């Protein structure tokens, strides 16, 4: 019981307050991460602007491609087999790299060379020398279409260099000559931007069997007299992330630009909401992270970078636009810049094996929440799903049972404390009646004396519930982050990583959506039953200004229904099963485990012992606190009287 609080409540108040605190924290977390109306409007306006820019850019690139093709065609017609001559038009277009315009790769700029293994298909275009299409072979979109991370011009990759005479050239405008070779089981794709037959800038891709990570090296040969010494090449990469999951809004909540900075490669990210921008002075890697898939660039050393993220979900085809501007290390003469590219799933063990802390792209939670998921939840999940091959719906039930069994001691302790408080209710009401016109501090002191003599700690009902909160929040982070749920069906849910729907509405209900999720309904219903069992018949607080606790508790299931209607059905299913087990535990403990007659006799025995032994250490401490509170109140009253 808190100091100065009215005691006119039933014996379950401590537990109910804990539930309310838990709900408030949970609701506050979700509410804090929701964008405001102004942010949503800004997103829509920004999406319209970005779409206009994208269309203008595509038109300009198309025109530029046609012009360059015309130049290359004219050059070919002019040369007529004269390999030594290069037309002035090519020199104007490509400068020191005019030779590249005479090669067949320039006349077929949109053609691409494909390399693939058992998990990836990567097509690299002649123009720009970078991936124009990347397909994940083992995954589909929710609509059973091939899952492409890069396709149809949604990505733009460019490196900027300067020549020794100060001219700038962008690799996106240049034509690279492709060649593919084998290095054991590895496929090696070389894309060369040639200044002559033996002088070139090369993009070198190495794809290994079964790997989502590629070696990507930028190197030069024979260009020491062409490229400016000491320059810092600039890498620009932008991408419009595709909408690939069932629920666009829910998917977008887990789509953001992540990065690592410093020698320890500490992971951080831009805002998950609207537009955001950050300048990093010691970048080691960055990731264009979607809910279940990521595009990652890892560099050697630390670099200065400007990272941007913008919401473009208004077009319903994409989620966010990401861009990175990275200043690479200074280069002298011929150079070799090794990097790595990752196109693949946000699968914890897949990312973990590559190191560099990129496994933190799976948002398991910070601090103790992440530890619980990493060292307890994931090993249990792996055992059930991967080792034993149990279906996902049953895996969730077993995990819930194990977790509730481990936490059953706290459940028992919480109910026992509630029972003690319930047995003391008549005496607490008598104290309230006796001191109804007296100083509240005296009434509080009398209540504390009753607790001490009876051997009851009024906070004992709150503590067990609060100790379970880390597990509750850890599971809230685990299920939306687990790609294993993606595409897994159970009962009426066709995808446990997305919302389930038993009825599609012809209209949208604000805060709720345009469908009805049965798992969310069941979760709200079981939570309502649990609230009723724990707090049925609770008296309203009589102290003026106190919140209507009963109303708040019954409001929580409604709020949870609104928020979980668009959440992953696997998450709603877990909370439904967890709450149902808690209801059964509550009933079993009440009916078969705790004997309230014996508990009442023990309380009376404690009260008799208190008369002979005197006040306990806890009671003496509480008495001292009450005296201090009374003295402070008296000082405030004297100061108030002095002002008058």
Mean pLDDT: 81
**Approximate strand percentage:** 15-25%
Rg: 33 Å
Low-confidence stretches: 1-12, 61-66, 74-84, 536-546
- Tell me, briefly, the overall form: elongated
**How many helical stretches?**
17
Structural class: alpha+beta
Describe this structure in words.
The chain is α+β, with helices and mostly antiparallel strands and 644 residues long. The protein has 2 domains: 13-33 and 369-488 and 567-627, no CATH class; 46-363, Beta-galactosidase, Chain A, domain 5 (Distorted Sandwich). Helix content is 45%, strand content 24%. The chain contains 17 helices and 19 strands. Strands 5, 6, 7, 8, 9, 10, 11, 12, 13, 14, 15, 16 and 17 form a 13-stranded antiparallel β-sheet that branches. The longest helix has 43 residues, at 37-79. The relative contact order is 0.11. Residues 1-12, 61-66, 74-84 and 536-546 have low confidence and may be disordered.
Condensed summary:
This protein is an alpha+beta fold and 644 residues long.
Write the layout of secondary structure elements.
Layout: H1 13-33, H2 37-79, H3 88-94, H4 104-107, E1 112-116, E2 120-125, E3 131-140, E4 146-150, E5 155-162, E6 168-170, E7 177-183, E8 186-196, E9 199-207, E10 213-221, E11 234-242, H5 248-253, E12 256-261, E13 266-269, E14 276-289, E15 293-311, E16 318-327, E17 336-345, H6 348-352, H7 367-387, H8 392-406, H9 408-423, H10 425-434, H11 440-454, H12 462-481, E18 503-509, E19 513-516, H13 518-535, H14 549-564, H15 569-593, H16 596-613, H17 617-643
Antiparallel strand pairs: 1-2, 2-3, 3-4, 5-6, 5-11, 7-8, 8-9, 9-10, 10-17, 11-16, 12-13, 12-14, 14-15, 15-16, 15-17, 18-19
């Amino acid at each position: 019981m808190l100091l100065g609080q009215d005691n006119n409540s039933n014996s379950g108040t401590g537990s109910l307050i804990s539930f309310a605190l838990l709900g408030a924290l949970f609701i506050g977390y979700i509410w804090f991460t929701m964008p405001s109306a102004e942010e949503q409007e800004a997103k829509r306006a920004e999406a319209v602007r970005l779409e206009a820019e994208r269309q203008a850019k595509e038109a300009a690139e198309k025109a530029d491609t046609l012009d360059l093709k015309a130049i290359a065609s004219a050059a070919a017609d002019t040369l007529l087999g004269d390999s030594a001559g290069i037309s002035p038009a090519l020199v104007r277009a490509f400068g020191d790299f005019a030779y590249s315009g005479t090669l067949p790769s320039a006349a077929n700029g949109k053609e691409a060379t494909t390399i693939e293994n058992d998990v990836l298909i990567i097509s690299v275009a002649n123009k720009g020398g970078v991936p124009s299409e990347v397909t994940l072979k083992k995954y589909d979109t929710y609509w059973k279409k091939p899952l492409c991370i890069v396709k149809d011009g949604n990505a733009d990759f460019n490196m900027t260099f300067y020549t020794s005479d100060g001219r700038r050239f962008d690799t996106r405008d240049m034509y690279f000559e492709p060649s593919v070779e084998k290095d054991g089981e590895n496929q090696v794709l070389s894309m060369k931007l040639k200044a002559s037959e033996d002088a070139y800038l090369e993009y070198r891709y190495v794809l290994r069997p079964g790997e989502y990570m590629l070696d990507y090296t930028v190197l030069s040969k024979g260009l020491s007299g062409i490229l400016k010494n000491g320059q810092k090449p600039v890498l620009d990469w932008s991408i419009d992330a595709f909408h690939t999951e069932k629920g666009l809004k829910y998917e977008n909540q887990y789509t953001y630009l992540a990065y690592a900075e410093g020698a320890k490669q500490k992971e951080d990210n831009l805002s998950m909401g609207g537009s955001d921008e950050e300048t990093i002075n010691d970048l080691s890697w960055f990731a264009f992270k979607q809910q279940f898939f990521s595009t990652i660039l890892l560099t050697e050393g630390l670099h200065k970078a400007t990272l941007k993220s913008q919401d473009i979900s208004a077009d319903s085809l994409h989620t966010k636009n990401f861009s990175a501007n990275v200043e690479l290390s200074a280069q002298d003469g011929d150079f070799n810049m090794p990097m790595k590219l990752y196109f693949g799933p946000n699968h914890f063990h897949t990312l973990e094996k590559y190191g560099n802390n990129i496994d933190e792209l799976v948002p398991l939670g910070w601090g103790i929440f992440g530890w619980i998921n990493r060292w307890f939840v994931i090993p249990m999940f792996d055992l059930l799903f991967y080792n034993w091959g149990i279906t996902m719906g049953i895996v969730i039930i077993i995990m819930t049972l194990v977790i509730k069994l481990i936490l059953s001691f706290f459940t028992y302790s919480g109910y026992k404390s509630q029972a003690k408080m319930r047995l003391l209710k008549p005496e607490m009401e008598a104290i309230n009646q006796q001191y109804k016109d007296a100083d509240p501090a005296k009434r509080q002191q009398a209540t504390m004396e009753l607790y001490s003599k009876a051997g009851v700690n009024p906070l004992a009902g709150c503590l067990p519930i609060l100790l379970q909160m880390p597990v509750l929040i850890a599971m809230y982070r685990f299920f939306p982050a687990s790609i294993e749920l993606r595409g897994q069906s159970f009962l009426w849910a066709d995808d446990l990583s997305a919302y389930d729907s038993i009825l599609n509405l012809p209209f949208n209900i604000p805060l709720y959506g345009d469908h009805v999720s049965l798992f969310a309904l069941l979760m709200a219903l079981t939570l309502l039953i649990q609230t009723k069992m724990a707090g049925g018949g609770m008296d309203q607080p009589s102290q003026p200004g106190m919140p209507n606790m009963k109303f708040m508790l019954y409001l929580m299931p409604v709020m949870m229904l609104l928020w979980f209607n668009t959440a992953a059905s696997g998450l709603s299913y877990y909370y439904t099963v967890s709450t149902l087990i808690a209801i059964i535990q509550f009933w079993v403990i009440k009916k078969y485990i705790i004997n309230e007659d014996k508990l009442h006799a023990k309380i009376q025995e404690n009260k008799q012992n208190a008369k002979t032994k005197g006040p306990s250490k806890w009671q003496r401490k509480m008495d001292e606190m009450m005296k201090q509170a009374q003295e402070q109140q008296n000082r405030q009253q004297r100061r108030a009287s002095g002002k008058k």
